[in-house]
């Protein structure tokens, strides 16, 4: 088996091109398994996976659950409400309790950046970050990369425009890191109020206008307007936002004719993306969901099978 040197998947940061290629190649194999009538394998038989979600999730949690089941693991779901007080204490206490039950992998989502990495220091099993605040969401970036690679045949040299609420988006962050690592050209398109202050240091080209930023793009990656994370008014109104930044047929014409339209979900139809574009011929949003299960199978297999060979601490 090819060497994969990491015990956890806490972010895309720290992964090398060979690490990412290994995960994507394995995910291609997992797609084949998921398309068979018999989808269950014995790869993780006897191992226990706990999904610990401190923040609501539909597709990420269900796809981690299916991925574990297709690999033959025993999967338990724990959804913990986020108590605003003593968050740190609650997080570590919960982690230690679960750790005592001897899981082999913990899949964790939390609303605070860095919470999953902190937890990984305390437990004795592998930890996968399923989204921590506005920090990282590595399996989303991997499933997006898999979707692009399977259709376009490569990642290097591909121009990807990431549009919308970059400020609050862990999906954007992880995608920028992954795409840059793999030699893609990354653009971000957003109003100034929805760009993080450090964006200039992230090796991306920044655009304020969709028309300019989409010119010649191979992939248009839309982001959800994360209104639940907005304390003040970041956008004047949803209508105005759609006018300037919502993806509709007119704006999409500026991208390449065969450009892919992506969205991590959940979508706000009519806010960041027009319904007919979300359901249109260039949309690969459903493929992204399918690739999500495959990527999570690949990640768990890679972390846990190599871990059992005792290669790493
Ligand atoms: C994303 C998330 O939770 O970060 N959704 C997802 O994982 N499918 C994006 C979002 O919430 O907008």
UniProtKB/TrEMBL annotation:
An MF annotation (GO) of this entry: amino acid binding
Residue ranges occupied by any Aspartate/ornithine carbamoyltransferase Asp/Orn-binding domain in the UniProt entry: 157-302
Keyword Cytoplasm recorded: no
Any single GO BP term: 'de novo' UMP biosynthetic process
Pfam family, one: OTCace_N
Pathway as given in its UniProt record: Pyrimidine metabolism; UMP biosynthesis via de novo pathway; (S)-dihydroorotate from bicarbonate: step 2/3
Binding annotation for carbamoyl phosphate: 59-60, 109, 137, 140, 265-266
Domain Aspartate/ornithine carbamoyltransferase carbamoyl-P binding, first and last residues per copy: 7-149
SUPFAM superfamilies, per database record: Aspartate/ornithine carbamoyltransferase
Gene3D superfamilies associated with the record: Aspartate/ornithine carbamoyltransferase
Keyword Transferase: yes
GO CC, one annotated term: cytosol
Binding of L-aspartate, residues: 87, 170, 224
UniProt keywords, alphabetically: Pyrimidine biosynthesis, Transferase
Function: Catalyzes the condensation of carbamoyl phosphate and aspartate to form carbamoyl aspartate and inorganic phosphate, the committed step in the de novo pyrimidine nucleotide biosynthesis pathway.
The protein's name: Aspartate carbamoyltransferase
Source organism of this protein record: Gellertiella hungarica
Taxonomy of the source species: Bacteria, Pseudomonadati, Pseudomonadota, Alphaproteobacteria, Hyphomicrobiales
The encoding gene: pyrB
């Amino acid at each position: 088996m090819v060497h994969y040197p990491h015990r956890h998947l806490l972010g895309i940061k720290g992964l090398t091109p060979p690490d990412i290629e290994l995960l994507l190649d394995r995910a291609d194999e997992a797609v084949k398994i998921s398309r068979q009538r018999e989808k269950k394998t014995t790869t993780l038989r006897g191992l226990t996976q706990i999904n610990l979600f401190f923040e609501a999730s539909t597709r990420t949690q269900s796809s981690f659950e299916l991925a574990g089941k297709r690999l033959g693991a025993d999967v338990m779901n724990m959804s913990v409400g986020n108590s605003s007080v003593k968050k740190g204490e609650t997080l570590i206490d919960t982690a230690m309790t679960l750790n005592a039950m001897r899981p082999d992998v913990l899949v964790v989502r939390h609303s605070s950046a860095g919470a999953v990495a902190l937890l990984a220091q305390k437990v004795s099993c592998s930890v996968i970050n399923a989204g921590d605040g506005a920090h990282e969401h590595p399996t989303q970036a991997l499933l997006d990369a898999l979707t692009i690679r399977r259709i376009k045949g490569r990642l290097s040299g591909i121009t990807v425009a990431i549009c919308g609420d970059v400020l609050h988006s862990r999906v954007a962050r992880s995608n920028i890191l992954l795409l840059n690592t793999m030699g893609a050209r990354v653009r971000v398109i957003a109003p100034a109020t929805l760009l993080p202050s450090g964006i200039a240091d992230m090796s991306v080209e920044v655009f304020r206008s969709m028309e300019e930023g989409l010119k010649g793009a191979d992939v248009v990656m839309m982001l959800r307007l994360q209104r639940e994370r907005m304390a003040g008014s970041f956008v004047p109104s949803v209508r105005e936002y759609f006018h300037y930044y919502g993806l509709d047929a007119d704006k999409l014409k500026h991208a390449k004719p065969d450009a892919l339209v992506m969205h991590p979900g959940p979508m706000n139809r009519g806010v960041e993306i027009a319904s007919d574009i979300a359901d249109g011929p260039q949309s690969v949003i459903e493929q992204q969901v399918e690739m999500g299960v495959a990527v999570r199978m690949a990640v768990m297999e890679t972390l846990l099978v190599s871990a059992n060979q005792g290669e790493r601490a």
